[in-house]
Write a structure and sequence with these properties.
Elements: H1 17-20, H2 33-42, E1 51-57, H3 75-78, E2 83-85, E3 92-94, H4 98-102, E4 107-114, H5 123-127, H6 143-151, E5 161-163, H7 168-171, H8 201-210, H9 226-229, H10 232-240, H11 243-249, H12 255-268, H13 270-275, H14 282-287, H15 308-318, E6 323-328, H16 337-361, E7 368-373, E8 377-378, E9 390-391, E10 395-401, E11 408-410, E12 412-413, E13 420-422, E14 425-426, H17 427-437, E15 446-448, E16 454-456
Parallel strand pairs: 1-6, 1-7, 4-11, 4-14, 5-6
Antiparallel strand pairs: 2-3, 4-10, 7-10, 8-9, 12-13, 15-16
Helix pairs in contact: 15-16
Length: 468
């Protein structure tokens, strides 16, 4: 067993936290890092396990076929699906999501998300901003990168931000650190062997142009032992001999600032253990497995095992991660919209049900905020290919957990779900709310850009008062 070396401080029982956090130690007696954080909070040490799970529906979810059905709209708009009642009086959603309907009182449904910049990636859902905002300085950073800047530390035993997105959000580097620079980028493990998501031919070329450094290595050269790693000079000297290999894995960008953290993560093995679903209870794995779809699966769509990405998110938060981003495909339904929703919505329904109940049973739901959205909505009018096209004018979103005032429907649209007619909500208002759930006042907190100027975390809007 490797014992991490470094700064020491005493618990009341005389055991140092540094010595307690050794490789494999957190499995003793079933005590997890989440348990430790809760004990520390009670003791007044000041740790926090507030976290965010940011779920991106890759391509843009169709509002008329999810949470804003219009059964009285003309046939060329309303589509094939019937609305069903939910636990929120008077509110109906798509018949393909009965589990969500049964727990609707634990969600907030936003039917009037506006302000999309129309970009076909997840950057706005990661940052709240357009990619053009502060573009000359490197662009705005994703929320997870901001949280790393504000709350992360080299003493942390887990990365602050983990990006598990696949498909278009991965290819287009949606969770980027912007003007904060590579020291604050997300940990981005390769999950392609766990979850199949074939890329379109054009995206394959896009990904190749990123090079090899867009992934984060989870392996450490065996020649480097714990004692040498405790000394920064010796560490960097040792890393010189393996720098080329680490560069290929994409880890060196973060090494300068997070030397202690990165090596601590790799030495302890807890982060890698959290990524290993073979270590999960088979009964829990089964809970996160949807029924096998009986309809055609589109080539880039996720399968019935995809919702285990949400299980990974929960496991990562348990070991100390503050922000996890995941994506599900494929909602880019220019063709066969209804067949593809018959495939994807039951899978999503099962995954959300599993996640909410799992977090609740573990006492984590009030600490973990969940947001579910896409880059825009989709057209009210069904096209000639039985599809719906891009519709930046209005889209749907959902929130849960984090102690919010749930069981609400915010906003409304016109009779074709094409325009917000009541309580429009912007992406930045949602981000201000998420920051508030983490204990960060986004409207008064700034980070310094490369010119030395302070930049607020949101440039407009306040946290949603309805959710307080």
């Amino acid at each position: 067993m490797l014992t991490l070396l470094g700064n020491r401080y005493q618990h009341c029982d005389g055991v140092t936290r540094r010595r307690f956090l050794t490789a494999g130690a957190l499995t003793i007696g079933g005590l997890t890092l989440a348990d430790l954080l809760r004990l520390e909070a009670v003791a007044g040490i000041g740790s926090s396990n507030k976290a965010i799970i940011n779920i991106h529906l890759d391509g843009g979810p169709p509002q008329l076929d999810t949470i804003d059905l219009k059964p009285n709209a003309p046939s060329e708009m309303r589509g094939e699906f019937n609305p069903i009642a939910t636990r929120i009086p008077g509110f109906q959603i798509c018949e393909l999501m009965p589990r969500l309907a049964a727990m609707a009182d634990r969600f907030v449904f936003i039917r009037s998300l506006v302000g999309s910049v129309g970009r076909h990636d997840a950057f706005q859902c990661q940052s709240g901003f357009s990619p053009k905002d502060l573009e000359s300085l490197g662009g705005r950073p994703a929320m997870g990168c901001v949280v790393t800047k504000l709350l992360g530390s080299t003493e942390d035993q887990a990365p602050t931000f983990v990006d598990l997105m696949q498909g278009r959000p991965l290819v287009r580097n949606s969770a980027r650190s912007g003007f904060l620079g590579p020291s604050f980028k997300a940990f981005r493990p390769d999950i392609s062997k766990l979850f199949e998501r074939p890329l379109e031919a054009g995206m394959v070329k896009e990904l190749q142009r990123q090079g090899a450094n867009h992934r984060t290595s989870l392996k450490l050269n065996a020649e480097l032992d714990a004692r040498r790693l405790d000394d920064r000079t010796e560490l960097l000297s040792g890393l010189d001999r393996i720098r080329r290999e680490l560069d290929r894995s994409g880890m060196m960008d973060a090494m300068d600032r997070f030397t202690q953290q990165a090596t601590g993560i790799l030495l302890s093995g807890r982060f890698a253990d959290a990524m290993d679903l073979n270590k999960e209870d088979p009964r829990v794995l089964q809970r996160y497995t949807a029924a096998t779809p009986t309809v055609e699966r589109f080539v880039t769509a996720d399968n019935e095992f995809a919702m285990r990405k949400l299980l990974l998110a929960r496991r990562l938060i348990e070991v100390g991660v503050r922000c996890v981003s995941v994506s599900f495909s494929d909602f880019d339904t220019h063709s066969k919209n209804f067949t593809r929703m018959k495939h994807m919505l039951p899978i999503l329904d099962a995954g959300l049900d599993a996640l909410l109940h799992d977090l609740d049973e573990r006492g984590m739901l009030d600490d973990v905020s969940i947001v579910l959205w896409g880059e825009f909505g989709r057209t009210p009018k069904i096209n000639a290919n039985a599809g719906r096209d891009h519709w930046p004018r209005v889209g749907p979103a959902m929130l849960a957990g984090g102690g919010i005032n749930a069981g609400q429907v915010i906003g409304a649209t016109d009779r074709t779900a094409g325009t917000a007619t009541a309580r429009p909500v912007t992406y930045q208002e949602v981000f201000a709310t998420l920051y508030r759930n983490l204990g960060i006042d986004a409207t008064n907190t700034t980070i310094i850009d490369p010119t030395g100027r302070p930049q607020y975390l949101v440039s407009e809007g306040e946290p949603l008062p309805e959710l307080a």
